[in-house]
Amino acid sequence: MKKSLAIAAAVAATFASASYAQSSVTLYGIVDAGFTYTTNVNNNANYALTSGNIQASRWGLRGVEDLGGGLKTIFTLESGFNVANGQQNGGLFNRQSFVGLTHQNYGTLTFGRQFDSMIDYISPLTAVGTWGGTYTAHLMDNDDLNGTFSLNNSVKYASPNLSGFQFGGLYAFSNNANGFAVNRAYSAGMSYAFEGLRLGAAYTQISGADAGGTGAVQGAPLVSAFGAGNGVIGGVGVNNRQRNWGAGASYTYGPVIGGVVFTQSRLSDSFGHAVRFNNIEANARYNLTPALGIGAMYTYTNANGSMLDANGSNSAHWHQFALQADYALSKRTDVYLEGVGMWGAGENAVGITQVGYQGSNNFSSSKNQGIVTTGIRHRF
Predict the structure, then answer these.
(1) For this UniProt entry, which residues form the secretion signal (predicted)?
(2) Does residue 157 belong to any structural domain of this protein?
(3) Whole-angstrom distance, CA of residue 284 vs CA of residue 76
(4) Residue 14 covered by a domain
(5) pTM
(6) What's the first-to-final CA gap in the chain, in angstroms?
(7) Which of 96, 250, 367, 377 could make an SS bond with 32 (beta carbons 3.0 to 4.6 A apart)?
(8) pLDDT tens, residue by residue, 157-208
(9) Which residue range(s) make up the domain with 63?
(10) Which residues pair with 81 in a beta bridge?
(11) Which CATH number is 78's domain given?
């Protein structure tokens, strides 16, 4: 009898251990902080301790449960925060919060607050999505490649890897009983990888972003960046539509990786105003040693509006350059030095003259601005 009980207990313990091994929850994150020097802030230089210079500081929980037969339950809860003052960047899980199912043969279906296809398929080809960080985002992150906003109430599908080809799509509900199409969003994209070559294309459309609503987006990049104050576009609440799309390629050859990307963002409001931003980027990174890497980027951005200014000009454009050196102290910790410069010229239909970087919150008091940042990043 005692022998039978011992065997039963051993079997139960074995199954309990197997069950426990099939589920996991992982704590992860990035802590990035340093010193940043910015020129032409109210006609002066600005010196500041800053957070998220190369990557936004964040912490999160990632869970997996193996259901058998190749099917798994997954979830992610991720929060961004400011290392300099300890404050959250919005709600508790302001970056991502989703749950869903994934299968090795059929792909992944998730529900919650998630990034769009521009982040999934275009951003990995750019400097901002790989080595360059926040200040290499295109003018005020107009195409959202640095994840200025996430999409609430979203259902997202991502295919498995089909001999190098992958695709996906997302639909974000308005959750508004009085307007199904008000403050909703949809997005789709695809990528292809073969040896060192990677290609990507994506599209996102947002209708009726609302700062205080319960829909897909609360606010939008260009609405907050340029606003109604200078006539570029109506403020949050009157923004009728935002459309972002892009395509690009990158190639890795030994220690060198280079990429070229084109993106376009279009905004229109209910008053008939419209503005279009075109961004062309070329970037490259070279690993001099396993620990030391250097990178360079150039982006050209132009803007066109729906009405000409008093001079009949429609030629606002910006040049943006970046250089970076990064040294790994370990597999998880690195130090960096980066310089970024932006020059603006011309005016267009809506008189855009601002020069500024996403994440700096300091518009230039002239048509040019430079940033030098150095700091330390730790991943866990």
Answers:
(1) 1-21
(2) yes
(3) 31
(4) no
(5) 0.86
(6) 50
(7) 377
(8) 999 999 999 999 999 998 877 777 778 999 999 999 999 999 999 999 998 7
(9) 23-379
(10) 88
(11) 2.40.160.10
